[in-house]
Write a structure and sequence with these properties.
By secondary structure, the chain is mainly alpha-helical. Helix content is 64%, strand content 7%. Strands 1-2-3 form a three-stranded antiparallel β-sheet, covered by helices on one side. Helix 1 packs antiparallel against helix 5 and helix 4 packs antiparallel against helix 5. The longest helix has 24 residues. The two termini are 20 Å apart.
Amino acid sequence: MVTGAVRALLRLEGAVVLAFSVGLYLRYGGNVWFLIPFILAVDVSMAGYAAGPSTGAMMYNALHSWVPGFAVLALGMFGGIDWLVLAGAVLVAHVGMDRMMGYGLKYPTSFADTHLGRIGRAHVPHEIRQ
């Protein structure tokens, strides 16, 4: 479990990347009214959990690592394709938002098992929950 100053730093990094990505999205002409629905749409990858935790983790991680977002962003920027820049910015913003909230990449054992530690109310020590 990531704790203390390291946890705070990882969340701050996520917040900075989220802010940068939103700024980039808006700079490239993205519609502010579509931003939140687009960012939340990335979580459609959780549908893989209907097929089990292993498939779910694979599908979730496919869109929730930095690699896809930055790859799409780079293709759009170097290719001069604005809609790809917008899509990449949305993907990167979503990952930044997740990291800011403490969510990480999933292990195939359970949705709650992430590279940042276990998530969910049941995994919070009792003295913190009160």
